[in-house]
Every structure is written in C-alpha cells, then in structure tokens.
Amino acid sequence: QLQLVESGGDLVQPGGSLRLSCAASGFTLAYHCIGWFRQAPGKEREGVACISNSNGAIHYADSVKGRFTISRDNAMVYLQMNSLKPEDTAVYYCNVGVNWGKGTLVTVSS
Fold it and tell me: C-alpha dihedral over 67, 73, 78, 80, to 10 degrees?
C-alpha cells in the first residue's frame, strides 16, 4: 500500500525559503504524476507542482512558477520554495494518484 509522509513545514517570514519533503513507500511507477497540492484556510485544495514518473516532465501552477522547484530522488519528492509570500500559507499535501499524505503546514508571516 502506498504511503506518503510530508515534512518540512514551518513558520517563515515573507521572502524566506523552505524545503518540503515527501517520503513515499510502496511506490509504483504506474502512477502518472507525483506532486504537491496545497489548501489554504477557507479555500479549495489546489495543485502546486507535479513531476511525471514516465518522462520526468514537470508542471507548476502559475502562482508558483519561478519560485518553487519540485524534484525527486528515488522514493523522496521535494518542494523547494523560495521568495515565499503570505498567500503561500497553506497545508501542503503530497499526492500520488488517489493517495494523499496528511499534510504539513506552511505559514508565511512577519
């Protein structure tokens, strides 16, 4: 069974950086994309970035392009977040297919 465990969320000042990690166990290459979503208070969950298992293609939400970088190293997936803004405040979730982690909280505030 696929399990996803996120870590790395924290309180950071605007303009700061964080790196989120997602440890995947029971991973299968059958899934098209492994990625990150986020859900801010009072808002719907939205896709942030994903990396394709088949060809390594990467996709980003427009709101994070140029600031966030997704990468993968075997069963670990990372999200490097730079130039963070208050609007990036959310719970960040790792996703593979229908599988979700429990999330890690990122708070951007001075």
Answer: -30
